[in-house]
Structure formats: structure tokens, C-alpha cells
Amino acid sequence: MQRTFCCCLVVCLLATTAGCATNGASHDDPLENYNRAMTRFNIQFDEWVLAPTARGYRRVVPGPVRGGIGNFFRNLREPYVMVNDLLQGKPGAAGRDVGRFIINTTLGIAGFADVATDLGIERNDEDFGQTLAVWRVPPGPHLVLPLFGPSNIRDGVGVATGLTYGSPIRPEDSDAHLGLSTLRVINTRARFLGTEKMLALQPDPYLFLRESYRQRREIQIRDGVVPDDADTEDMLLDELLQDD
User: Fold this and answer.
1) Labelling 190: which of 15, 21, 66, 162 has CA 20 to 30 A away?
2) In which band, very low, low, confident or very high, does the pLDDT at 135 lie, cut at 50, 70 and 90?
3) Is the separation of the CB atoms in 212 and 238 below 8 Å?
4) pLDDT of 20-63, one tens digit each?
5) Could you give the residue ranges of the DSSP H alpha helices within 107-231?
6) What's the 3-state SS for 74-138?
7) Interior CA angle at 106 toward 100 and 109, to 5°?
């Protein structure tokens, strides 16, 4: 799955970059024509496949069980977050993440219970895209990824890295990896059922998603500090865009 995604990302970049000079897209968003088409695809896929599946899942699986599953996947990601803490020069945050992982894996029964948060050890949310930003790698043009949604060139590399190294379940364990990845996606989507109505109210869903993503990533890179020019109305979809 990871190799396929990386290959698709490279192909998309080559194809869209080659055509951006003549497709009428703006300088600020040179891949806009491709991005709009991919946004329509993602919205349609969610409407036809993902949201109905999540609704069925939500009816069958009780809320506490869904919450435990979400905790389990967040705990699996803690070592990846810790590595990015270190790469960003945040040893204190890395130490807290190590503590969270140990506590939740043991006292939390493989992470199904978030005991660390109950003890006051807050969760960090770091990924390789943020690490590249800290290293002053420019974001590049906005890029909508198939199924993953809004991103940019820099964060696209971060997504590919997270898919490969963000879980101790290796891609070589194809059956387990596919099953866990599918469960994670459905469980996450079930949390946000109803948010699609907010998107449907937007006069231009693509612009809403694009600007919400840009502002959200800027806040993440700044470790929660809101830029002075941030428009809070454009950040209402933060939770929908957030990596669970």
C-alpha cells in the first residue's frame, strides 16, 4: 500500500506540474485544476463508500468500544511522534511521549485506555511534514491527495513517511496491515459523521478545505500558536482534517 501510494504521488506531481503552465490555474495554486478534480473525487468517494460504511459501523459498534479503538491506534503512533519530537529538537516532548507510550501500553491495556491523559500527560501531535517545516523546507504548492485530502508537496512526503513508519505493523504483514488500516479509517470517519453537512453549506468547498488546511498546518507547526491573520471561521473543519 505504501509503495503504491508513493508511486501515485510521484505520478500526480509529474503530470500536474507539467500541465500547470497552460491550465489557467493561479500562481498561488498552480495545481488547482487537478486539485479541484481530486476534491470532487474524494467527496464523492466519501458520500458513496466511506460515510455509509462508517454509519453502519457506528450502529453496530458501541461508543466506548470505538473510543478504545481510537486510543489503540493513537498509542501505536506514539513512537513515530517521539522520533519527530527528537528530529525537531524537542527532547522534553519526546520524553513525555515515551512515558505516554509505556503507561498506555501497560496500564492502558495495549493503549485501549488513555491512562496517560488522565494522569495529566498530554498527547503531542507531530509528523514528518511538520519536521520538514521546522527544517525550513518550503511547503510547495497545495496538493489534494487521493483519499487523504488536502495537503502540499512537503506534507505529501510526510504522509508517505507516516504510512511507512507511523505504525509498528510493517507493510510486509500485508493482511494485518490492511485490516488495521481499514479499521482505523472507518473508526475515524465514524467520529465525524455529520461534519459533511458543514462542507455542503460552503459556496466553494475546495477553497474552504484548502484554506482550513493551510491554517491548521501553520498552527500545528507553531505548536498551537494561532497566527495573527488566522480566520477562525475558516478553521471550523479542523477536526475533520485532523489526523486521528
Assistant:
1) 162
2) very high
3) yes
4) 433 545 668 999 999 999 999 999 999 999 999 999 999 999 99
5) 115-118, 128-134, 153-165, 174-191, 196-200, 205-221
6) HHHCHHHHHHHHHHCCCHHHHHHHHHHHHHHHHCCCCCCCCHHHHCCCCCCCCCHHHHHHHCCCC
7) 105
Cell match 470517519: residue? 189
**Strand-strand pairing, 149-152 and 142-145:** antiparallel
Specify whether the CB–CB gap between 206 and 162 falls below 8 A. Answer: no
For residue 96, give the C-alpha cell. 513525555
Distance CA 188, CA 241 (A): 11
Q: Of 83, 72, 84, nearest to 220 (Cα)?
A: 84
Q: How many CB atoms lie within 10 A of CB 127?
A: 20
Report the distance separating Cα 68 and Cα 62, nearest Å. Answer: 10
Query: Is residue 235 within 8 Å of 215, Cβ to Cβ?
Result: yes
User: Would you state the cell numbers that stand for residue 45, as one nine-digit string?
Assistant: 468517494
Average pLDDT score over residue span 152-164: 92
**Residue 237 vs residues 116, 181, 199: alpha-carbon distances, Å:** 27, 23, 8
Cα(16)–Cα(109) distance, integer angstroms: 46
